[in-house]
Amino acid sequence: MDSRELGLVLGQQLLGVDDLHYGLWEDDIERKLANLPIAQQRYTEMLAATLPAVAEGVRLLDVGCGTGHILEQLLERGYSVDAVSPAPELSRQVGERLERFPDNDTRLFQCRFEDLPVEEVAGQYDAIFFSESFQYIDTETALTHAQQLLKPGGSITICDFFKTDKSGDGGPADQIIGGGHRLERFYLQVEAAPFETERDEDITSLVSPNMDVLNDFLMNTIKPAGLTLGEYLQGRYPKTGWLAKRLMGKKFAKLGRKYFSGKRTGETFERYKNYRLLVLRLQSS
């Protein structure tokens, strides 16, 4: 398990949620951790609304399917869906969900999207969607693969965040929240590809409350618990504590700056990230 997958699995376990994506915090949802699953389901409904209607022969591709919760819901609605998952532990969870659908024909590709056997499934999909997985994939590769995988007139849905022009400005919270492609460069690559932009919606303000909710959890629950445990171990096992600090001190300090500085806020997110819902339609050749 690599560090990226470990972070996702730990987040899932600590927060007790089925989804790994952000939530959509509409006005009627109170900003508290207990409502995160509600906000995440709103996000799922928003994404699902961009997909073609269920019909015979319609097939979707879920790229970076996480725990498989969205995949499961789409199967329940009657869709035929394949999925891509490069993470072994998450793939295991997806496999367990798929056991609930013994008659389905879902193919789970346990590889990176860049390594997908494109020739085997070329022209098979009506829609491809990326739920916070687009940021991990080379943009040119993603668009090129999509051209080959989609049926004529098929679509891509991208629900993810991008770096703003302020990313890298050296501000006090710069690089606190990683990830994302440069938005300006992404637009240029889309212009050069055979896709028409059908929808491009800035939903940053509906997503950024995630950061305030999670920052509150980190600062007021996880950090105090960690400090208490650290004090206990230091008092009970001083030599072990000294050795751990000696070996892991720099890594702990880095984690502290990233997650426990109190700067992982909605305001920081809105400065350095732009969250967008995009639907791109493959143009007829």
UniProtKB/TrEMBL annotation:
Protein name, entry field: Methyltransferase type 11 domain-containing protein
GO terms (molecular function) for this protein are: S-adenosylmethionine-dependent methyltransferase activity
Where does the Methyltransferase type domain start and stop, copy by copy?
A: 61-157
User: CDD domains this protein is in?
Assistant: AdoMet_MTases (cd02440)
Q: Name one Pfam family in it.
A: Methyltransf_11
- Gene Ontology terms describing biological process: methylation
Keyword match Methyltransferase: yes
What are the alphabetically sorted keywords of the record? Methyltransferase, S-adenosyl-L-methionine, Transferase
Q: PANTHER family annotated for this entry?
A: METHYLTRANSFERASE, UBIQUINONE BIOSYNTHESIS O-METHYLTRANSFERASE, MITOCHONDRIAL
